[in-house]
Amino acid sequence: MRVTMSDVARAAQVNKATVSRVLRGDARISPATVEKVWAAIKELGYRPDAIARGLSSSRSDTVGVFLEDISLPWAAEYLAGLERVLSRHGVDIIPRATGGDPQQRYNALSGLLSRRVDGFILFDNGPAPEADIPSVIVGPKREGGHTVSVDLGSAASQLARLADGRAVELHQGENPFFPGIGALLPDDAPKKKGTVRLFDGLLPQEEGTSPDDTVVISATRRCPAVPPGAWKLYWPAFELGTLSARLLLNIIQGKGVRPQVVSVLPALTGPL
Amino acid sequence: MRVTMSDVARAAQVNKATVSRVLRGDARISPATVEKVWAAIKELGYRPDAIARGLSSSRSDTVGVFLEDISLPWAAEYLAGLERVLSRHGVDIIPRATGGDPQQRYNALSGLLSRRVDGFILFDNGPAPEADIPSVIVGPKREGGHTVSVDLGSAASQLARLADGRAVELHQGENPFFPGIGALLPDDAPKKKGTVRLFDGLLPQEEGTSPDDTVVISATRRCPAVPPGAWKLYWPAFELGTLSARLLLNIIQGKGVRPQVVSVLPALTGPL
DNA sequence: TTGTACGCGTTATCAT
DNA sequence: ATGATAACGCGTACAA
Q: CA-CA to B141 of 20 to 30 Å: which in A240, B40, B52, B197?
């Protein structure tokens, strides 16, 4: 059988409620009792039961994360960022792939609602849940929701600065890091010789490159697929994760946060 | 307030227990009643409560996944593989980074035990939990445990075949896909001209390559950082995930699986 | 085939 | 400062 709070209470010769209070760090409890209870806890090797706690407190210390496709290279870094922050607060994450399929997404959603997750991260461009549950949207701002996003404008202007009058060419693969950045890039006729070529979600093919050309690769922390000589445009997946986590925590803890948009900056760095 | 089973029971004019049985698909229940109950369920928008269910059944339909570092490029694909299989069985995953720190890992472990996860995936080279709980180890076989691993031997022999008498050179980055493969590579004196160079966790630097040389890059599905002209040694992270998931499910469902080692094959493919 | 009643391990509300 | 006890929502042996 499992060691429960009652067992601890019996061993410490106090009431269940007292044990619960000690565990939750209730201030108004005599040091002597606290001592006794902790002794019993360690003695018996008691481990609190999160499920029972959840049933009683109707919180699960768990958040659901919707990703269109978990296997995307940056997904891991995003999850790592989330986990880093949330785990420090006793909150676990449950990632779910929605695959762009509404039915599948609906199933995932109701499954997580059944689990009574305390909140959602929506990183799949899908609609927010109808239910009134704390959620953070990652991506383009949507009305009345908490949103975190990557500052495409900043990336665009950094590229423009690097270009300095040259043409900027955008090559995007099937899974670009900066979707939508095309619209922000300068498209006026180049005044100088040469080209800045941004490969977003692609590796550049070997082509003759003139000395006036500059190659920029999108990359994340752990996907260092940047060939020597190329510039790197950093897509801050990890930071996006830590930021989302902090925002969601605030909402869950009801810190009176108003719906807001927070964004995180990409960084452009030169070849080594 | 929340819609509970009692509400459904009242609406359908049956007992709570009957509703529970209908939900669990109990065979011995009259079609008429089933009909009524489902009607009430939809009518009221009832959603079963996984926490209450867990308390009562002492299962959580949840598994913990230990990764040393979630942000590694292949981690996402592994998780995606896990999720793909497990979600179809109503099981959710809770990934945790252990960061190679024993203390941190211990905390994660006891947190997940508190949550009453139904099983563990250990992909961080750490020790198996002392508790007797279904677990699958990913990596080198350990005594008496269920293990899934990547067949390094197969990768080595495929490389040897490709080399066909030439030298095989191994370049590994800080996060190689094939740790340990070095020991398996042929190291006899090359009989032919040229070299097979395997870049494992690295991008090759631009160097003069003789026509007799062959470049091989380790890659996963979604990390296609393979320059044109290079061979690709596929590290089957996704498949590792689906395999781990199936094995763990079998163990959890007590299908009498004996401790075993299953491995998944890397594939070597030529340039496009 | 369906209903009754108890147990699961905590938290929270009253009392004291 | 601490004890008693009622929820919390569901599964299930047992009864009918």
A: B197
Tell which of B2, B3, B41, B70 to mutate to test the A interface (max A CBs under 10 Å): B70
Question: Are residues A81 and A216 located together in one domain of the fold?
Answer: no
Is residue A97 within 8 A of residue B83, CB to CB? The reply is yes
- Closest partner residue to A225 among B94, B112, B225, by Cβ? B225
User: Strands B267-269 and B231-234: what pairing?
Assistant: antiparallel
Residues A94 and A157 in one domain: no
Q: Which residue has the tokens 């950082």?
A: B225
The answer to whether residue B153 neighbours chain A at the CB level (below 8 Å) is no
Could you tell me if A64 and A40 are in contact, meaning their C-beta atoms sit under 8 angstroms apart? no
Chain B residues closer than 8 Å to A94 by CB: 62, 92-94
Instruction: Say whether both B120 and B222 belong to one domain.
Output: no
CA dihedral A131, A133, A136, A137 (to 10 degrees): 0
Q: Distance in angstroms, CA of B1 to C1' of C15? A: 27
Whether residue B160 sits in one domain with residue B143: no
Q: Tell me the residue range of the domain where A29 lies.
A: 5-48
In a domain, A175, yes or no: yes
In 3D space, the residue among A272, A271, A249 whose CA is nearest the CA of residue A82 turns out to be A249
Q: Residue B74 belongs to a domain with what CATH number?
A: 3.40.50.2300
In-domain check, residue B272: no
Q: What is the largest CA-CA distance in chain A?
A: 84
pLDDT tens per residue, chain A (272 residues)? 789 999 999 999 999 999 999 998 887 788 888 988 999 999 999 999 999 999 999 999 999 999 999 998 899 999 999 999 999 999 999 999 999 899 999 999 999 999 999 999 999 988 888 778 999 999 887 777 899 999 999 999 999 999 988 989 999 988 889 999 999 998 777 788 888 999 998 777 766 677 788 989 998 887 667 777 889 999 999 999 999 999 999 999 887 778 888 999 999 998 87
| Residue B75 sits in the same domain as residue B179 | no
pTM: 0.93
Q: Which nucleotide is nearest to A55 (CA to C1')?
A: D8
* Judgement on whether residues B144 and B64 belong to the same structural domain of the protein: yes
Domain count, chain A: 3
Contact (Cβ atoms closer than 8 angstroms) between residue B221 and residue B237: yes
Examine the domain organization and report whether B128 and B160 are in the same domain.
Answer: no
> Which tokens sit at A252?
């869950």
